[in-house]
Amino acid sequence: MRMKMKGADTMNITDVRVRKVAKEGKMKAVVSITIDEEFVVHDIKVIEGEKGLFIAMPSRKATDGEYRDIAHPINSGTRDMIQKLILGKYQEMLDAEPAEAVEAAE
After folding, report:
1. pLDDT surpassing 80 at residue 76
2. Range of the domain at 26
């Protein structure tokens, strides 16, 4: 998926890797995205909230106890695009699971 960036050509997310979290809880998956086959962002989390699934960008706990994103989109349009792409890949992974379980049982 290509996105327009200010003062530049476009940014292309060239790879999305989703790792499902095995344990129960609100965190459902951990994702890595590759941008333009040159820059990777790891540890984007897929979280199940009260209003449905959303992504949480990688963060670190600061000395004041608050969590701060260490990598994140600058505007909501870019965040929405990344979230839509990641949640789409997550859903594809979930949709593929029953077929894989049936194939393994045969």
Report:
1. yes
2. 13-96
